LacI family DNA-binding transcriptional regulator
Amino acid sequence: MATISDVARAAGVSISTVSYALSGKRTITASTRARIEDAIRELDYQPHAGARMLAGATTNILALSAPIHTDGHLPTHMRFVTAVVDTARRYDYDVLLLATDDDVSGIRRVAASSLVDGVVAMGVKAHDERVEIVKRAALPAAFIGVSGEHGDGVACVDLDFERAGRLAITTLADAGHRTVGVVGHPPTYLERGTGFVQRFNAGLEAEAAARGIRIDVVSPTLARGDAERAFDDLLDASPEMTAVLFHCNEPVVEAVLRRIRERGLEVPTDLSAFAACASYDTSHLAVPLSSIPLPLDQMCRIAVESALRQVRGVDALGVELIPPVAEDRGSVARPRR
Amino acid sequence: MATISDVARAAGVSISTVSYALSGKRTITASTRARIEDAIRELDYQPHAGARMLAGATTNILALSAPIHTDGHLPTHMRFVTAVVDTARRYDYDVLLLATDDDVSGIRRVAASSLVDGVVAMGVKAHDERVEIVKRAALPAAFIGVSGEHGDGVACVDLDFERAGRLAITTLADAGHRTVGVVGHPPTYLERGTGFVQRFNAGLEAEAAARGIRIDVVSPTLARGDAERAFDDLLDASPEMTAVLFHCNEPVVEAVLRRIRERGLEVPTDLSAFAACASYDTSHLAVPLSSIPLPLDQMCRIAVESALRQVRGVDALGVELIPPVAEDRGSVARPRR
DNA sequence: GCGCATCATCGAAGCGCTTCGACACATCCC
DNA sequence: GGGATGTGTCGAAGCGCTTCGATGATGCGC
């Protein structure tokens, strides 16, 4: 492996000149810079990662804290991970994946060993332990999700789930629906302390109350047949239901859509359907669904950029909530009655 | 952050003594070691990753080359990733995730910058470019999948797909089936140069020929409805078909199982079904399927261990093929006729 | 009790990089 | 024309660790 002194020798300059040419932190004559760049190319020089870290510069590595939950939706999880990796690469950063079940030990470890410049945290809970760790270690960090009421003093980015809940109801109410069945995430999501479900529900309930909409909520588990059963319950509880609102993962949506068909109902003629905060492509479902997409890529991009801004010493804290946007795919119609 | 000299001072020994106590490369008196360990605990000392790298020791990081393909099955992909991470953690290793679309540039980069001690590569092709890179860089590496005829001189681990193909036919043939429909992976898998499909098919065809079994193969794409259509084609081509053999991802299996039901057929009474090299849990399907499970965890474990053995300087090259094992879940019965 | 292994510990070099201060030189203004 | 200012480059220190060789202490056999 070529070192910086090989480059310096080849270019006929000193080591520090090469370093400054690389970092751009001091002015270098164009001709000198050109010679250095030639040498770098010729020797296929790549800075030694360890040396760079040790000398107190950046590591060009970001940790991604991505705790796995047994009830989580693996494809969604993976989409987040790859979105973070893609964005990081665009800034010449690599990603160290902390994906064991233990959320905190990994962060603690990388923080203490100065292995990473910053952290991006997924699966953020309403009260997330990781907040304290990054604060104490003064480690640049961005949370995908909101910890605490107002971000607990760290950088958070998320879809505005509260507004998404309102928007979902608004969309259905504007189409004339008065009784809406809601298919939510498994109850374990709430138990685990995931904040977004609470926030979505709060928006949902507030808007429904304000507009006098009746909502019935079911939270099927991921067990086979549970989604279908939950839909049946919904219909039993309110036979006058004219719309189904999904706030759950793709397999549950697919199962319910099949059940709807099985019961001889058609979307949107007999029943309107709307997918809120969909982490999947609703246009490829058996029935393309109008939806509020989860802006997953955007969330990851903002998170990575926030973390990197903090690395550069720019204060980038605070909560950024992305406004929800509804997309019409024709699955919401006026109720017939 | 505490450094090694803080620890040395606290324990009343020299820096090198602390280092040797940590690495165990020289003998240290029990009492000295105890004092050092106390100091480490008290100061919450964690070695500086960069310093360790620079001093020529290990980085305790493994790169995971996990190229993403649009036609891949994200949950399976994610299971591989987490299995590698879990195993690595058990050896006190962290994982740097190289998951952009470009297989090779990531490996090249980490190799040149000495960022990682080794590489684990997923999604291995029949002729994988990454082989040359790790060989040239003398980078410890383990491939999950087989490159070339016999591993191209690098460490490879995989299910023995050829035997799996044979075993699948054997299982069905032993139950008395003479005409088998095969639902395979999308054609893009083969076009992309994925080796395991070829090897599975080779085993399949050889065994079928040897036993005089008729096989019809369909390779549905992931487009909605294509799996169902493919199954219909299978039935049209050979109405005397008594068994379906799956060598595809879960969503396709689910779709075909539904189609089977829709056509008024029952498994295993009317039609036997068998899932080969299943990366998913076949006991949770609508119809629990007898299967040859893909030993995903075992593959990842072996790969990580092989890479780490190479890091320690032990020669761990060569191909390790895991023998396939069939599990009976009652979805294969004797044909009725 | 002497020389000789063996054991436990230490000091110092060096890994490749960044960055600070210094320096030589050119440019500018009164 | 001389001091002030700015520009491009260099030398050297130091980041925290590993490891080699050296050294003092201990135990052994004869």
Notes: Chain A is about 45% helix and 15% strand. Chain A has three domains: 4-47, 61-160+296-322, 161-293.
